[in-house]
Amino acid sequence: MASRRALSHVVSAFRANKDLVHARYHQPRSQLPAHLGSWVQPARPISSNNCLAANAAQAVGKASEEQAEHPAAKPVAKPAPAVTGSTAAEARIRGHAAESEVVAKAPLESSRAASQMERGFQSGLPPSPSVVVIDTLELLRGFERAGFSAQQAEAITRATLAVTKSSVDPLATKSDLERHILGQLSELREFKQDIGSRHREAAANSKHMADMVLAECEKLRAELRYTHEKVTSSQKLDLNLERGRIRDDLTAQDNKMAAAEARLDREMAAMRTTIEAAKNDVIKYAVGTIMSFGALSLGLMRLLG
Questions:
Q1: Is the pTM of this model over 0.70?
Q2: Where is the composition biased (Basic and acidic residues) (predicted)?
Q3: Residue 98: inside a domain
Q4: Which of 23, 46, 146, 255 has most Cβ atoms within 10 angstroms of its Cβ?
C-alpha cells in the first residue's frame, strides 16, 4: 500500500513538474528549421538540486510519513539491504547515468564565445549535447528510506532517468536557439550585404544607361540641328533663286510691255499722221470737185442762157 502511495506521489510530482520542464526547454524540435532538427540535443544542464529529484524526494518523504502514521497498513517488505547492496546499486545507477549523459558546454557569456559559436554554426558542425543532471544517489536513498528495496529503488530511478531523458529529448535548448538566431543574423547580414551590392550595381548600371541615353539624345539633337540648318539653308537658297528668277521674269515682262507700248504709240502716231494727210486730201479734192461743179454749172448756165 505504501509502495503504491509512493509511486502515486512520484507520478504526481512528475506531472506537476511538466510545466516547469517545458518552461526550461522552450521549443520542440519539430518547430526548428530543417537544418537544426537533425542535430538538436537535449536541453542545457539542470543543477544538482533538480526540481524533479527534489519533488520525488518530497513525495517519498510524504509516503514514509504516511507509512509511519499508519503502521497497520505497512506491507510486509524485505529487510533493508546492507550498505554493500545499496552501494552496489548506487554504483550501477552512477555507471548507467555516466553512460547516458554527455558533458554540456556552458552557455554563451561573452562576445568571443558568441563569435566562436557563430563560426561553428556557419561551418555546419553540430553543437555539443547538453546534460540533464539528476541527483540519482539522493533519489535512490529517498526511495530506500520510503521502504523500497535496493532493486526496486534502482528500477524506479532508472525509469525516472528514462522518462526525464525522453521528455527533454525532443526539445531544443536555449543554446540551440541562440545558435539559430546567430545563424539567422549572419544570413541576414549576408543578405543585406548582397542587397547592398546588388543595389549599388543596379544604381551604377542605371547611371551608365542614363549617361548613354543622354549621349544618344545629345547626338540626335546635334544631328537634328545640323539637318535643320541644312534644310533651312537649302530652302533659303532655293527661295533666293526663285525670287531672282521671278524678278528676272518680271523685268522681262516689263521690258516687253514697254516695247509694246512704244510700238503702239508709234503706230498710233503714224495712223494719226496718215489720217490727217487723208483728211487734207479729201478736203482738197472736195473743194476742187465743188469748184469744178460750180464752174461747169456756170458754163452750162451761160450756154443755156
A1: no
A2: 63-72
A3: yes
A4: 146
